[in-house]
Each structure stands twice: as C-alpha cells, then as structure tokens.
Amino acid sequence: MTEHPADETLSALPQQGEREVETTLRPSRLTEFIGQPRVREQLELVLESARRRGVPPDHVLLSGPPGLGKTSLAMIVAAELDASIRITSGPALERAGDLAAMLSNLAEGDVLFIDEIHRIARPAEEMLYLAMEDFRVDVVVGKGPGATSIPLEIAPFTLVGATTRSGALTGPLRDRFGFTGQMEFYADDELDQVVKRSAKILDITVDDDGSAEIARRSRGTPRIANRLLRRVRDYAEVREDGHVTLGVARAALKVYDVDELGLDRLDRAVLSALVHSFGGGPVGVSTLAVAVGEEPTTVEEVCEPYLVRAGMLARTPRGRVATAGAWEHLGLRPPARGDQPGPTLFD
Ligand SMILES: Nc1ncnc2c1ncn2[C@@H]1O[C@H](COP(=O)(O)OP(=O)(O)OP(=O)(O)O)[C@@H](O)[C@H]1O
Fold this sequence. Notes:
Bound molecules: adenosine-5'-triphosphate
EC number: 3.6.4.-
Oligomer: single chain
Number of strands: 9
CATH superfamily of the largest domain: P-loop containing nucleotide triphosphate hydrolases
Family: Belongs to the RuvB family.
Pfam families: AAA_lid_4, RuvB_N, WHD_RuvB
CATH architecture of the largest domain: 3-Layer(aba) Sandwich
CATH topology of the largest domain: Rossmann fold
Subcellular location: Cytoplasm
C-alpha cells in the first residue's frame, strides 16, 4: 500500500496553528452543539439541576477519541453556568505544586478543565482527590522528617476532565466524577450540519451535495470535517469560482488524496498490516501494534473504534480480524471462507 500525503489532513489530532480557527468555529452554547444527543441531554440535566439548587455541579468527565468536541463541551459547561474557565492539561501538571497554585487561584463556581487527564502525574492526582471531594488541598512545606502539611481551603469549583483513554484513569479518580459523558463518532448527517454551520461562519458557499461529500469523508470527526472544508474552500477559490459543489468537493479531495472513507494513516497502516502481514487475522492487538510501530493503547483506543464502526475490523476473542470490506477497501479480493487460517495447535 502506498502512503498518502493526506496523512496530516486526515489526522483527528489538531495541527499546528489550527487552534485559532477552531476557536472561531467552536459552538458556544449547548443548543448550538451538534450531535451527541445522549451526552447533551444528560449534561443539560446535570447543569440545570445545579443551577436551580444554586451549587456548582458535580465534576464531569468527558471521554472519547480526539476531535469529537470535548474541549468545546468543557467551554460550554462554563458558559452555561456563567462561570470562568481555567484550562490546563495532565502533562502540564507534573508537580503537585503546579496544581496547588492553579486550585488556590480558583474563584467560587469556576470551571477547571484538565485535558488528557489520564496523563496527570501521581502526586498531582492524589492532590486532586481531596480537592474534588472536600475542596481542600494539603500543601507540604519543607522536606524530609521535618516536612509538615498545611491544609488549605479552596473555593468550590467544577472539574471537567477530558480523556481519550478512560480505561487508563485510576479507580479513585474515576469515582470522583459525578457524571461521565461518553462521546461517540458523529453520523454523516450530523457532520453535514457541522460543515454547513462552519461554512456559514467562514463565509463559504457550499451546495447540499458538496457538504454531504465532505461530511462522508470526515471519519466521524468534526475536527476533520472543518479541516476538509477549509481545504476544499482553498481549491474552490483558486481553481473555481469559490462555490463548493459536489464536483468541486470531489476534485479537491482527490488533490489532497483523501481516502474515500476518510481513513487516516494509522487506520490504513493497521488494515494493511492485518491483511498483508497476518492474512486478515485473527491477530492480537499487541502484535498488530508492533507491526505498525504504535502503542497498543493507541491502536486500541484511537484507531480501532472507528475501524469497527466503519465495518472494516472485527474484535473477536481470538484477535483482530479484517472484514471483507477491509480487503475491498485496499483493492484486494477477500479470501474465500475456507482460505482463512484455521485454529492451530497453539490457539
Ligand atoms: N458538536 C459540534 N458541533 C460543531 N462543531 C464542533 C462540534 N464538536 C467539535 N466541533 C469542532 O471541532 C473542533 C475540535 O473540537 P474540540 O477541540 O472540542 O475537540 P476535542 O475532542 O477536545 O479534541 P482534542 O481532545 O483533540 O482537543 C473544533 O473546532 C470545534 O469547533
């Protein structure tokens, strides 16, 4: 299989310099947030009930693959509560002191957003337990046997944590969240609405068919939909009259070598390894991860959920298996059932 130059265009992770345009495109209220009906409804109840009781809502954990709107939702939580938001991330909280400084600066009712919360260092995590439960931190002064711990009251706040790996969170941390929202990949019609909304904000005219084509190739991810829209806009402005039709969208996406299904580099590498190196499987996730040079958890939690949803990969008790759709997507003929490797002595 050839490597596509579209790798970056299709990545669900943010690209350099993209945050600014993402800010422009972020929905700012719950009613503007497209899709995720279950999480939206549940969150609405949590927020409304807290508002009526006049207390900060329970801590909220948002879990799901990158680019599905966790940061946007965290900001919406603050906006709906009319509260300020402080933003940090797990990797930035290496020392407990960094977190203590952040917590002691919070005003009553503030929202503290910790992205990638599963990557928080252990001492900071332990400090967070007490802060989440009792709105208190223990600050350790001095070192060695003479060290003393001074309890410090902090203002009641709401923590919103985001993670792509809820399984990597320790039990005690997970238990301290009163509400967990599991974000799902978006359906094509929801992404179509995302594309239309963003087109309006960016002043791009787009036909229904053009918008649907961009949505269909966006890997169920609003971040990718917004990026593809901007690349198609570039093509439309330079090569056409600026208007995005189905033909313009298709021609532009061909230039950027965007996969028909919007699969990204890792998705394609996994399918390719599965088919070319392991005869379509079954193969264990660790072996598959080594073959594509990735961490098993990345393959399992970032890549596989979309491949399963797209009907390309099946997770079976004996390992991962490429479906007929995967073979066909790679331009190959799926093996007849009898050709599949059978169980061996060691299975
Ligand atoms: N439901 C939505 N409706 C409209 N736009 C959305 C929606 N969800 C996400 N977006 C857009 O997609 C982009 C990425 O969203 P966001 O940064 O919130 O994702 P994320 O899940 O926090 O990703 P990461 O964890 O990688 O930062 C933003 O530009 C945002 O405007």
